[in-house]
Amino acid sequence: MVKSSQSKLLIVAYLIAICHFTSVSVLAQPGFEAIFDPRFGQLKTTLSVESESHDSRAIKGSAEDMAYHFEQLRLSLPIKQDENSELAFRFQGSVMDIASDVTLPDTGEKFPDHLWDLRFGGLYRKNLGQGQFWGLMADIGSPSDRPFASFDEVSLNISAFLHKPKSRSEAWVYFLNVSNNREFLPWVPLPGVGYLWNKPNQSRGLIGLPASFVNVAINENVTIQASYFLIRTIQAQINFAITEQLKLYSRFNWGSRRYFRDARKDDDDRLFYYEKKVTTGANVQLSENVVLDLFAGYAFDRFYFEGEEYDDRGDNRLSISDGPFAGVSAKISF
Q1: Which residues contact 304 (CB under 8 A, 6 or more apart)?
Q2: pTM of the predicted structure, to 2 decimals
Q3: How far apart are CA 239 and CA 143, in angstroms?
Q4: What CA–CA distance (Å, rounded) separates 194 from 205?
Q5: What distance in Å separates the CA atoms of residue 311 and residue 140, rounded to the nearest whole number?
Q6: Per-chain mean pLDDT for the chain
Q7: Phi and psi (nearest 5°) for 86?
Q8: Architecture label for domain 2-333
Q9: Deepest in the core among 52, 108, 113, 144, taking most CB within 10 A?
Q10: CA nearest 137: which of 179, 95, 82, 80?
């Protein structure tokens, strides 16, 4: 089963690469740091792949155990860019290959062998001059054990944002998000505001709601990064630059994934997976365009449940015992 799903994901990656790798650019920075970058026309084509394995561990309160292998592929591709506007295509595909015979405790249904998350979308930014710009991000996908089996397994995520400079190194940002697969309040429009700053070689970040991030340089070799998104998405990381080509890091993150299980009884229910992880890794710059990341760590406080929201975390719940994991990722950009 694991080999079958891995082959499918590799086929997707191959087809996308063949169709799009002749282009010369896409977003080199993920998330907020990319969409609020005041520079235009400097996007890069980026392809990243990740593979992560978790050993078999007991399921609490059950005679069964569970192991899983996670694979992910991301592609960013510019369609058009100049000093006035940018348009980029984005694809993200991931799969959790799960090895377990466990059944969901409340409904008695077999737990899925594969959980997919396939998303297609794009980013548009328009430069209004004098550091002011606006943009849109959108994607449509299907996080499910049977992707795109019906409209009930389709996810939609749309965000609009506006960047208004306060000074050369400061700005106010405003955004609005609508999503049917947000951790909380699906389909409810979520507004946001934040204060953005960038002091080269010192610190940069965004302080606001519903999201914040910060990157602080302790000295030329040590940096600290942290990010937060409502309600239970947290990451903190410390980086040590050993040489220009080698960086070591330690990281804590708490996050979740959410899926629309095809056979669920209530269309409003989602299959939630929560986990906390501590990770140590080595980031190796193999060339100007290729970065390799080797990592290992320990996952804990992890569980699945099926319901409409976090308050339903006792429904169809499976709690997985703590355990180690290891993985590798690679990123190509040009």
Answers
A1: 111, 271, 272, 273, 316, 317, 318, 320
A2: 0.88
A3: 32
A4: 10
A5: 26
A6: 90
A7: -140, 140
A8: Beta Barrel (2.40)
A9: 144
A10: 179
